[in-house]
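Need tokens for this chain, all 101 residues.
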Amino acid sequence: MELLGTYSTARINTNSYNLTFSFPDNCNAIVSHKDGVYSVAINLNKGQTQPSSNYITDNIICNQYNGCIEIQFVQQNFNPIGGDWGDGNSTKPKVKIFVNG
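Here are the structure tokens for all 101 residues:
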């Protein structure tokens, strides 16, 4: 199961997009931004072993940098050997959205 639920982008103007995304309520989502790349890291909260079936929604405004916006979701990776949800440092699976303004 992925930690990223639904996501959508909506154009605000020629330079900005609104990003809306959902994730389980027992996870946290940390957004960072540098040079037009928005990274959303979604991880299970400490002590959690399975994602909740209840999702919450978050929203951020993404502005273009040199004519582009890159949005990437980095989710915690499932560990099939250990049977848990990994250590929170995995970069797979990854979803990238490129918006060329």
